[in-house]
Write a structure and sequence with these properties.
alpha+beta, 33% strand, 1 helix, 24% helix, single chain
């Protein structure tokens, strides 16, 4: 299983850092762009590598929530 993390707040002004497993971090100009990338990357990995992917998105309340590649809640 691979985990993609999308934080609520930028890691620095104008840069949301998305962690894709332990392999890499990518920066995006907006949180929306980061979430869109996470969903697309999760779908690609599921299709090409047959890997289960969970997208963890941090909410404004500081709680991390898990989603599938379709952005449906895991819970």
């Amino acid at each position: 299983m691979l985990i993609i993390d999308v934080p609520f707040a930028p890691t620095r002004p104008g840069a949301w850092s998305v962690a894709v497993g332990r392999r890499r971090n990518l920066d995006f100009a907006t949180r929306q762009s980061a979430v869109e990338f996470a969903a697309a990357e999760a779908e690609r990995l599921k299709r090409t590598e047959r890997t289960n992917v969970v997208i963890n998105i941090e909410g404004a309340d500081g709680v991390w929530r898990a989603f599938r590649n379709t952005l449906e809640s895991v819970v």
